[in-house]
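To: structure desk
From: M.T.
Subject: fold request, one chain
Message: Could you run this one when you get a chance? Sequence is below, nothing fancy, just the single chain.
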Amino acid sequence: MTGKGYVITASIRHANQIKCDEIWQITRSDKTLSGVIWVPELAPSWSLFNEYNNNWKNKPPEEWWPDYMKRFNEEIQSQVKLQALRRLWTHVQQGKVIALVCFCTDRAYCHRRLIAEFLENQGIRTEEFTAPSSDPKDSVNQPALFN
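Reply: Done. Structure tokens follow.
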């Protein structure tokens, strides 16, 4: 495959539904799915992760998200994260589709969104994976053999 690839972001619960070349798990936890590459360099620092777990986890996002976003965006500028982002950029430039997955269910309050925004500012196309709907009204009506 040649040409520009792109990045898909998603909750890890959808990892088996994503069509891509590689799945990178960007979490503090090293409990990974089979075939998934663990990339903790793109996870929040232990300090930020612990701040979330100890002080913000059960509070409304409006109270903590601005601080979280500011701190994570500062962390993105660290050499460790930039090195991982350069590796990701190289894969994308080689035409690969890379999925970044984490445990967060709401992209609006998740570091994967912040990484996607950073990548978009670098000219890399990103998209959030949307699982196929399981709502019966969205499914196709199968014609019955006998009416």
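Reply (cont.): The longest strand covers residues 6-11. Let me know if you need anything else for the meeting.
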